[in-house]
Specification:
alpha/beta, Isopropylmalate Dehydrogenase, 2 domains, ten-stranded mixed sheet, two-stranded antiparallel sheet, globular
Amino acid sequence: MQKRIVILPGDGIGPEVTAAAERVLTEIGTAYGHEFEVKHAYLGGAAIDEYGTPLPQETIDACQQSDAVLLGAVGGPKWDSLPGDIRPEKGLLGLRKSLGLFANLRPVTIFDSLADASPLKDEVVQGVDLLIVRELTGGLYFGEPRERREVNGEETAVDTLIYSRSEIERIVRRGFELARERRGILTSVDKANVLESSRLWREVVEEVAGDYPEVTYSHMLVDNAAMQLIRNPKQFDVIVTENMFGDILSDEASMITGSLGMLPSASLSESGPGLFEPIHGSAPDIAGKGIANPLATLSSVVLMLAYTLEMPEEAKALQKAIDDVLKNGYRTADLTDQANVLSTDEMTEKVVEALKQTTATS
């Protein structure tokens, strides 16, 4: 089977972790008889340096013609002084919009072998397995007007939060569908006691819920959700929420696992290629040192195999390889304070070795 994959290395540690992913994809192709046609393209700061824009048309075209897109990370202090409309992050927002990506899936799973890396007590985190479903195309990040203006003689900044009923309905439906495939529990997070957009959100959830009688659902205010993620994260199965709330809550949830370097994400459209990326940033302070944790990116490849490339067996094999490596005690620097840690390349090779063992016995 041939699949076209666009890799966007991006900035900071992005090229290092996407190189790890490409190495693993090569092994999967060999083991299962697939041909992955890989093309590299520019996004973010690297694109600004090369093209003067964070999202070149060449990148958009390549991604739209692909089966899936894998991203490393974007941004860094080198570009922090640029105007907001040409910063690296603007490229990522534009790419999401050009691909029609509206559903961002961020799984949060505790590996038993890494429970001691969590800042929370073992009894709180053991068994955590939740999925945050974040709306990607609306809300404060895209609302207009976005501007600074003078009001009563004082400089004032304006951001606008806009959601349409159709935008809310499609992400809520995706949340219910995913909950139905998992444990059948959906928590809708909003701020309906304050925001009109959240009141509309809650109304839509109530309407859509009637189509999913097998799913138990509830509403939770975002401030309470932030607290409950720390107090009792095991109560959650699927959390569905709007753009900014999902951005914040998923970063909070990531620390339950003990490291941002462990969590993947998938951004999906109604049809067409998905975008897969680790949720960590570009980490410019460690870029080029060969110590970045590649496992979030490799876990993003798991999601890519499962959700877009329709290769469930391959996804399970790669997930098992990652699990086995961690169970065997291998760690990168972000997961331990011990001296004996693996580099990015060494951790990647451990996953490849485990993958070979898994595919040889399957």
